[in-house]
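Q: Convert this sequence to structure tokens.
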Amino acid sequence: MPSRGTSLVSRGVSSGRSHHLLSELEAIYFYLLERRAGIAEIREQWPILDMDRTLELCARFGVRPRMRNGCPEPFTIDFLVTERVDGRLTYRAASVKSPDDARDPETRLRLAVEHAWCQDRGIPWTLVDTQRFDKTMLETLRFIRGWFRHKYAPDAALEERFVAQFAAHHAPNRLLSEVLARVSRSLRQPVATTEDVFRYCAWSGQIQPSLARPLSMDAPVVMTSDLAHA
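A:
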């Protein structure tokens, strides 16, 4: 599919398959979804193959269908999310657009078609507020997601000990590398292991670095609690 901006392919943490994301905004939302407990499946660029109904909705909203080789192209929903709620699987749809695109009259009409089709099927539909999505958030999410690239296997007992030691050694003006070196000595673990435990604990919400601030080994880590206190 044609894409404006930066597209990328990312292997899913839970699905194990390649997810095709058409923009950095989609990548941020995808990573945020992956971190949520209860998410069972994330389908990106999900096609609405109910052509008769979407053409009826196009006529209602005054939308000109996109054509290829004389045939209308299906509408696609940016994300169709399967979530486990109270022991049962539910579906919800989400469209991810930049603030400028979300204000564009033609785009809004196409989104109205998506929304109406989802309403027909009883699927909640959301236009994601992306105003706070930026490159810093994307790079921070990629940084903490590094545990998956490094093939770290979650270990609840080690993570519990890590969280306690991290709280003991963290300071607002202390480099992350220095904090993790101290934690490594306390836990008697290699530094590389401790770094991936940090990433996983941040990813899973056991510790909470700010996603709005840069995160790297050679800088202090800003915690959400630090921001709240400030």
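The two ends are 45 Å apart (CA to CA).
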